[in-house]
Amino acid sequence: MSTKTMPTTMEVSLPDPEAARTEEAGAATSGRSWYFAFFFISGFCSILYELIWLRLAMAQFGVTTAMVSIVISSFMAGLGIGSWAAGHLLRKYARRLTSPPLHLYAMAELFIGCSAVVVPLELLTGRLVLEHVGNSLSLSSTGYYIAAGIWLACSLVPWCACMGATIPLGMFAIRSDKRLESRRSFSFLYLANVLGAVAGALIPLLFIEVFGFTVTLRFGMVLNLAVCGTALWVAGKQAPQADSSDQAEPDATDKPSLTARQMFGNSTLWLLFATGLTSMGMEVVWTREYAVFLGNLVYSFAIILGVYLAAMFIGSSVYRFWSRRHSNEGALVWLFVWLAALIPLLTADSRLRMLPWWLRVPLGIAAFSGLLGFLTPRLVDRFSEGDPDRAGIGYAVNVAGCILGPLAAGFILLPHLDERHALTVLALPWLLIALWFALFPAGSLERFTAHRAVALIVILFASCGLIFTTQGYVQQISGEQVRRDSTATVVAAGQGRWKRLYVNGVSMTYLTPITKLMVTMPLAFLDRPPQNALVICFGMGTTHRSALSWGIDSTVVDLVPSVPALFWYYHADASQVLKSPHSHVVVDDGRRFLERTVDQYDVIVIDPPPPVEAAGSSLLYSREFYFAAKKRLRPDGILQQWYPGGDLATTAAITRALKESFPYVRAFISIEGMGVHYFASRRPIPVRSAAELAQRTPPSAASDLVEWGPFPTAEQQFAVMLKREVSVDWLISADINAPAMQDDRPVNEYYLLRATGARLHWRWLETCPETVSLWLSRVFDGMSPSGRS
């Protein structure tokens, strides 16, 4: 029989407080790392979805300012609603929760991942429904916008609400973990989210170039699902809570909910509203202001967005460090916000020639963005003190400002003020706020001292210098005529044949016989007298004017209202031309007009805005667009596609799209030796001599054709063009690996890897059978909407 040995005093192991603290610190660090990773990926995916959904909506409903505003407003409204609703529901039902709080966050990420597949289907369905209902009910343009806006809101807001809910849900999970500090949890998650958004503004552009929109969305979905699965795993490893009521800190949970009156009178919420209003409004102004240096490319907006978010991240990082020892930011910070908001007036002044284009945006907007990155999480932390409900309210108020900012800038300020004055108006609230805090400080530490008075005077003098001594690009174009609207700032300048058209500072076109041949040559190829023509993109109105010289109906469509308003500047007979009963000018997106009209045309002329890489221009080169145009051509009608020239891949992609869309395609190098005229039809395009083409051209049209030379007769003009015919297959051979231009593969707009030579290193991703691209395509085959052709 064995005797049980009793432990002596020396044998009893006592807990080591230092080891326990070390283990707890390690667990806290690990927990913070997981949350940082979650919200980094979440921020990355949110920007990825926003960029691609906006582009998909443009393809389905039109590239109009109103439509873009609807998409962005729906996206931001969803974020605000989700943030507020999640915080409100957590306050109401948190104590009843029996599962780990991190499970709620995981479910939100799951729903966000599902949106990558569902939203494209919703957008495609919406276009088909509106196309059917609109044609049957003869919806007006306003009615179409209303119907499309409702559909877009219903499609985007629920999914974006899940994105907005992630921060309150993450804060709730952090507050439920006693090892983690929660009073500044919003700024911690905000920091990770913004850093992910920086990556999301740049990296998806490379994926889109290689894989297209659909596969890039699937990549985002895989990331969301990975976050969901990992969050569930992390929640399973956490020690279970004995009582769900212990998951909330008493000081946070016991705070009474704010009434509407309290929220309306809370100065912190008004400051949060102002940060959203001015920052997003200024993004619209910056896009126009820097277009003269960056161009109208997808990378232009990416640069502005990337710098803005990177500076926000730096500002948020500084706040996290600063807030460990400080609690009062000081009144001078608000004065610096006012001054920093005006710096773009200087960096966008083209007279500052020593400043390279690639430095203008960082130097112009980084200071303002960094200050807002410091102040926004500071304000939310101060308002919420770790309470998810209050953080949701604060973030929702900030998002409300983000919704109104672009609308105010795009539809109120920019149509009536130049970019410089619009920027000053948006910055003005910060001057008023700064003066209030400087003149009426709170607390003895914030007395109006002599040093503060000197700083105030210096900053005011510096801001006056920025406002009154700088110039925008419009002021530096001599003899200009300026028109402004919600879509663009349009400038007509020059004399005689040197007249030019500028849209947002980018040169669009000049007086050239190329624009006359765009319509005259296909009309002369027809086997019968033409009845009408459709011109997409007004430009200087030359093509529309040449079509009318045939004595036929001509309809011209342009997206920018101010462009047709300057027709008189380029042609002395403009008023007479516009008064003709045969002339029809429509302000609309050209593709949307094609898909909604029921008219049939003999010739459709497409003259997309230059350069060929312009953002959104692929929607006028894609197979889906040609399918829509083909339905509006008469059986023997001819589509003329103008291609100003680009890299080899773009040339091959556009040519392949035309050849796959029409059985008969011919191509001619322009009369000035640059660019290509494509003629496409469902029936063979007759082979005619220059004399036959000239004979079929009415005298008035022949006279119009040779108005600017370079040859004195129409026959000579046609003869030169016929000698410049090139093989369509030869153009495709420029890059045999380039896919046909599609809505999902905008080859012309996304070219960075090709331009830098890095594209060759990515080629294996498209050819290797074990690539991620092919695997994703197989896994999700059939889950994306098919092409419309």
Task: Sum this structure up briefly.
With 789 residues, the chain is α/β, with parallel strands linked by helices.
Feature tags:
single chain, 789 residues, alpha/beta, 4-stranded antiparallel β-sheet, 8% strand
Description of the structure:
- This protein has 789 residues and is α/β, with parallel strands linked by helices.
- 61% of the residues lie in helices and 8% in strands.
- It is built from 33 helices and 12 strands.
- Helix 19 (542-548) links the parallel strand 5 (532-536) and strand 6 (553-558).
- Helix 9 runs antiparallel to helix 16 and helix 12 runs antiparallel to helix 16.
- It is globular, with a radius of gyration of 30 Å.
- Mean pLDDT is 86; it is low at 1-14, 241-254 and 761-789.
Low-confidence stretches: 1-14, 241-254, 761-789
End-to-end Cα distance, whole Å, is: 90 Å
Q: Per DSSP, what share of the residues sits in E-state strands of 2 or more residues?
A: 5-15%
Main pleated sheet: 8 strands, mixed
**Average pLDDT:** 86
Shape: globular
Helix content range: 55-70%
Please give the radius of gyration in angstroms.
30 Å
Oligomer: single chain
Judged by helices, strands and strand pairing, the structural class is: alpha/beta
Strand order of the largest sheet: 7-6-5-8-9-11-10-12
Record field, number of beta strands: 12
Layout of strands and helices, then pairs:
Layout (H helix, E strand, L loop, with lengths): L16 H45 L3 H29 L8 H36 L3 H36 L8 H27 L1 H25 L12 H4 L6 H5 L2 H23 L1 H4 L3 H25 L9 H10 L1 H5 L9 H28 L3 H26 L5 H21 L10 H20 L11 E4 L4 E5 L6 E4 L2 E5 L3 H12 L6 E5 L5 H7 L4 E6 L3 H4 L1 H4 L3 H6 L3 E5 L2 H7 L4 E6 L16 H10 E11 L4 H14 L2 E6 L6 E6 L8 H6 L3 H7 L8 H10 L1 E2 L1 H5 L19 H5 L2 H4 L1 H4 L4 H8 L10
Parallel strand pairs: 5-6, 5-8, 6-7, 8-9
Antiparallel strand pairs: 1-2, 2-3, 3-4, 9-11, 10-11, 10-12
Helix pairs in contact: 1-2, 1-3, 1-4, 1-5, 1-6, 2-4, 2-15, 3-4, 3-6, 4-5, 4-15, 5-6, 5-11, 5-14, 9-14, 9-15, 9-16, 11-14, 12-14, 12-16, 12-17, 14-15, 18-19, 24-25
